[in-house]
Amino acid sequence: MNVPMSWLKQYVDIDCDIVTFTDGMIMSGSNIETYKETGEEISKVVWAKITKVEAHPDADRLRVMQVDAGQDKELQIVTAADNVDLGDVIPLALDGATLADGLKIKSGKLRGVESQGMMCSVEELGFEVDEVEDAPENGVYVCKYNVLLGDDVKPFFGLGETVVEYEITSDRPDCFSILGLAREAAATFNKPFNYPVITVPEIGEDARQMADIEIQNEDLCPRYAARIIKNVKVGPSPKWLKDHLISAGLRPINNIVDITNYMLLEFGQPMHAFDYDKLVDKKIIVRNAKEGEKIVTLLEEEVDLDPSMLVIADPEKPIAIAGIMGGEDTMVTEDTKTILFECANFHGPNIRESSKKLGIISDSSIKYTKGLDPNNVGPALDRAAQLVAEVGAGEVVSEVIDIYPKVREPITISYDPDEINKFLGTKIEEDVMIDYFTRLEFIVDRSNKKVTIPTFRPDITIMADLAEEVARLYGYDKIEPTLERGRPTVGLKTREQQIKDLIRQVMSLHGVYGAMTYTFESPKVFDLLKIEEDSKLRDVLEISNPLGKDFSIMRTTTLNGMLTSISTNYNRRNESAALYEIGKIFIKDEEKELPKELEKLTIAMYGPETDFYTLKGIIESLFESLKCSDRVEYTRNNDASWMHPGRRADIVQGNKRIGTFGEIHPDVSRNYNIKTRVYFAEIDIASLLEITKLEEEFKPLPKYPSISRDIAILVKEDILAGDIAKIINQRGGKYLERYKLFDVYYGEQVEEGYKSMAYNITFRSPDKTLKEKEVTKTIKKIIHGLETNFEAEIRDH
Amino acid sequence: MQEKLEKIREQATKALESETLLKELEDLRVQYLGKKGELTAVLRGMGSVEPEERPAIGKLANEVRENIEGLIDKKKKELEKLAQEQQLDEEVIDVTMPGKKIRIGKMHPIQKTQEEVENIFLGMGYEVVDGREVETGYYNFDALNLGPDHPARDEQDTFYFTRDMMLRTCTSPVQVHTMESQKPPIRMVAPGKVYRSDEVDATHSPVFHQIEGLVIDKDITFGDLKGALAEFAKSLFGDKAKVKFRPHYFPFTEPSAEVDVSCVMCDGKGCNICGGTGWIEILGCGMVHPKVLEMAGIDPEVYSGFAFGMGLERITMLKYSIHDLRLFYENDVRFISQF
Question: Most exposed of A305, A388, B24, B139 (fewest Cβ within 10 Å)?
């Protein structure tokens, strides 16, 4: 909301400077985005009179003029303007002047003749031609008024006005008006608020005899009032009215439209003017639209209405969409002789709904959406009528047609100074509180500790609201900061949070960087990811009003987000990247109202030193850090279609798969424009939380020496290390401490289709020194197991 | 005999003096002192020595043996020392060559800020509570005093799945769940992803992160709110950080305030970052609206409380002078590695 200071000052006597003013308003709750002076970019443009005109010696299109700009010496101007002549008073940009578009004017020679400035059009001062009376379509502005030569032209054009831009919060519909803000300013600076004096010169007759109004839906239209204006003369508004509108950022159009706009700003009350002669039966009906009804708006667009929308109709047809836009049929034109001026109150949420459905947002609908005070309708309509008479736009017929079935009454609430002080942590005297209430136009009943709240303040309903009024006028900055002395609580992270912190630590220690990706994405990702048509992953939660198709479904896998980030890194030529994220996927839950939100740890990486086992090593480290390595197994995966079919694994706990990892399928990498191998893991966080052991468990250091043996076996290529490990585990006996696969060899001396695997196996007893014999016996058992299960051939032990 | 011994001593001394190789030293020991060595050979001839001379010869033989042994040991030490020196000389390396890199990962900057903020409040006795991202209208709106007609429910701001199921627009629903399940005193912060229907640009993202706090107990005042947030700002932005509370409007708090912190770049003198005002808006807060307490089953006649919330992207951008929010979601390792 832009408010020119001079307009505000009509209703409250603000005498401080602009910085003090804006600071004060901000601290009392009217937030100010910024303030600026209109035409502040324009400088050194003054009034000057043409005293001599000569032809340019070398150019037919140019003339050389002498002008009196109120200086000691006359200035010489070379101009191409052909609409000016001897004796004209014009705006002159002096040497060093700047114009509205930032253009700087300097003295110089034009075709060899010295020119000491430039004559200006209204466009060069930042106006449209039709915004300034008498401005020629093309050419320099010629002033017909009495102005002082050498004076700055800005005040004449209504420039140089300080305009303050307010950010009004939705709880204060009253402040979407100059009067509302003037009232706030008065309360803030403890000045009287001078409500406009409204007197309507009426010409007799009785409007109530000239038209009939019926409200069929009182919920959506609590009040509908109208006045009738006769002998209408549609024409330009006077300069003061235009200046007000321009400085508030509106374009003047004609006196009738300008007055409705003026009321929109000053009273925050939308109005609409109908051409009275075009109203069928001179009857206005406020009703819901009928199924299939249409209206052509004054923007000449035909729109379809539906029964949820409120219309203003005559007995035949809708003539306006209530609170949103008038119809073309009854709009005021230059031929209009009589006007019916509507000033009404409509239900805000309904206007918002309709406006949204129709896709029409107007100055009027914006105001109504906030929820306006029906008691503002009367004074606003009278004020508009007063202006009509004042600017000579027509004659006001006596009486108001006013349908207001349920008058909104002010509410009365209790206040308790002690409670308010206790709530705020202050010691403000009751007298001071009462002063604040009075400044805000609340009516105070001190003996009963009650205040009556004016109807323009629907935001005040309980004591907490009164506390806020007291606090903001007292000054938030004056309230002492204190440390709460409530009963103590201990701040500790939950087990789940501690485990997630630990996961992040492990990732960091392995060179994996934290990432964050969007949780919604495009439905196209499933094809990019080679996910089968019938996969459950395609059963997604869809956003009904997404920002676009690309952000329309909630992810059921973290693949796309991570691969997109990997692609970004790869295509920016980062040699390697390793990323992880802890984030959610969303799975529909038919039994519950809301979907399942499953948290996943995702890891993705590529780089010259990265392979499947790099990723697996990180995963193993993670389980080790979470002290649950012994709870999981790694098995071949056979359903992750987005992965390399020979390089994909499941992490299994008991019968449950808790994660999948491996190399991304080359087709998928290609779809993401990644031309290198990518390794990817997705692990279920809830499952991790279940098996993690946070508690440290101390075991004494071993007292007796260990015995190690190496064995090398020859097995078929497709025998899995994991299966061999199982045999070693099963047959290793109670003294098996650890084993390590330290070599896998193919090639010379190994038959085609076979591989040699070498293990180092260590045994130790906690309570004695083992004997070679015991170990040899166990090793034999292991070897026997390998021979029978895998047809292993023992090469060495 | 005596002469022979002296000769051996003389020869051995000479040989040892000129010896330069550690491995030949052992050969010399064998040559002179070994079982088949020269000294042993001489002593084998003891039988031919007159019995009365034997003690003297024996003594001399021992002397010679000890003598030679001493010389060998001495020589050994010398040569070992020399060998080590030689080895050290040979092992000179270029210490200015780069080390073997062990890459350490970094936390995402938003996560890092989140943890910093969490830690401040953990230290003040708050718990950290996580919550759902898909919510019902009741928890995202109604329970926060945003009735069915409230403009904030507008589709322009909220992503809906159905009329009553949506992506949360703030983390306040977590506060409501907490109020419903716990009795005061409550001190909590709720961090997490939130969603608003904003097109992506340098300062907007449809997904972003918030952390919101809530304190409820008997006799909690607006002054307490100011005190808690002033402490927070100092912990996060340094001891010099000042805060300014401006009246504002939020449906779920009354009175409500927006909080500015003195600009971290210019210490409040005014610069580009703060738009010359010296202040930067960082959070919204207020006293919990009595209706919000009541709806969650907490008696507003007995308890009062305050709530606050801030955007983690905004704070992170301020802390590190990051001007484009999109960087957070690109996950370029050159960006993340800086935090």
Answer: B24
What class does CATH assign to A411-478? alpha beta
CA closest to A506 among chain B residues: B105
Over A371-425, what HEC string results?
Answer: CCCHHHHHHHHHHHHHHHHHHCCCEECCCCEEECCCCCCCEEEECCHHHHHHHHC
Cβ atoms of A276 and A339 within 8 Å: the answer is yes
The region, left, alpha or beta by phi > 0 then psi within -120 to 50, assigned to residue B286 is left
Count contacts between A and B (CB, < 8 Å): 242
The structural architecture, per CATH, of the domain A43-131 is Beta Barrel (2.40)
Angle of helix B109-123 versus helix B312-320 axis, rounded to 10: 100
Rg of the Cα trace of chain B? 43
**CA neighbours within 13 Å on the CB side: how many for A771?**
3
Q: Which of these CATH numbers, 2.40.128.280, 3.30.930.10, 3.40.1280.10, 1.20.1050.10, describes A495-691?
A: 3.30.930.10
Q: Looking at per-residue confidence, does B54 or A97 come out higher?
A: A97
The CATH architecture annotation of domain A707-796 reads: 2-Layer Sandwich (3.30)
Contacts of B193 in chain A (CB under 8 A): 519, 583-584
Phi, psi of B270 (to 5 degrees): 105, 120
pLDDT tens column, B85-122: 999 999 999 999 999 888 899 999 999 999 999 999 99
Q: Which of A326, A236, A309 is nearest to A274 (CA)?
A: A326
Under an 8 A CB cutoff, do B108 and A544 touch? no
CA distance linking residue A752 with residue A580, whole number of Å: 40
Q: Using CB atoms, pick whichever of B155, B251, B290 lies closest to residue A462.
A: B290
Computed over every residue of chain A, the mean pLDDT equals 94
pLDDT-derived band at A95, boundaries 50, 70, 90: very high
The full DSSP string for A431-498 is HHHHHHHHHTTPEEETTTTEEEEPTT-TT--SHHHHHHHHHHHH-GGGSPP----S--------HHHH
Residue A656, token pair as written in the block: 């449950």
For A2-38+161-189, CATH number?
A: 3.30.56.10
* A352, A497, A593: residue with CB nearest B151: A352
Torsion of CA B60, B66, B68, B70, to 10 degrees: -150
Mutate: best of B201, B333, B335, B339, partner A, most A CBs <10 A: B333
**CATH code for the structural domain at B109-336:** 3.30.930.10
In sequence order, what are the residues at sequence separation of 6 or more whose Cβ sits closer than 8 angstroms to the Cβ of residue A230?
A203, A205, A337, A338, A394, A395, A397
